[in-house]
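Troubleshooting log. The previous structure file for this entry was overwritten by mistake, so regenerating from the original sequence record. Sequence copied from the archived sheet and checked twice against the printout by T.R.
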Amino acid sequence: MAKIHPEEPTSSPCTFYRRETYTLWMKSLVLHSNGCTVYDSNGDIVYRVDNYDQKGRREVNLMDLSGRVLCTIHKRLLGFGHWDVYRCSGSNSKSQDKPWFQVKRCYKIMKGQLTCQIIMECQKYCVETIDGKKTFRIVDIDGDIVAHAEQKYSSSGIVLGNDVLKLEVEGGIDHSLIMAFVTVFGLISGRM
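Regenerated output below.
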């Protein structure tokens, strides 16, 4: 007999520390809303972002498949190009008054590349575009690449669309943190 309610996973599917390849579909699963859906290498939905209002709204939530809010991304009103990201507790609310990390939008004068500086306590990261808005990478303070996104192709070499990306995340880092970085970068670059 088929199960009506699937079994609850014993561990959180949103915190991985091994190397993983994700598929980012820069569309929401909800009709007529903006957002992003993230699939793991097995084709299962792992993360999602749904904006029910308009593109680039002031507050956006990164959720897991079941709709549990993992973090809330808040755009500062008077800080142009500044975002605060708050980690959420089980009650889907900000678990702290102090942001989990902060993001500042920057532009490299050469070639007009869009970059973001991410400050998280004593750690710093940078998200930078490589080829327009399609390809980007996340680099830590030591210059090591922790994640890299590029256009996704089918196994036969066909481009899957401008809104479908392949994201490779290195091991040893919380993948929900990387997805929060990607979500903020999507808001900054106007993709969500």
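The mean pLDDT is 80. Archived copy saved in two places this time.
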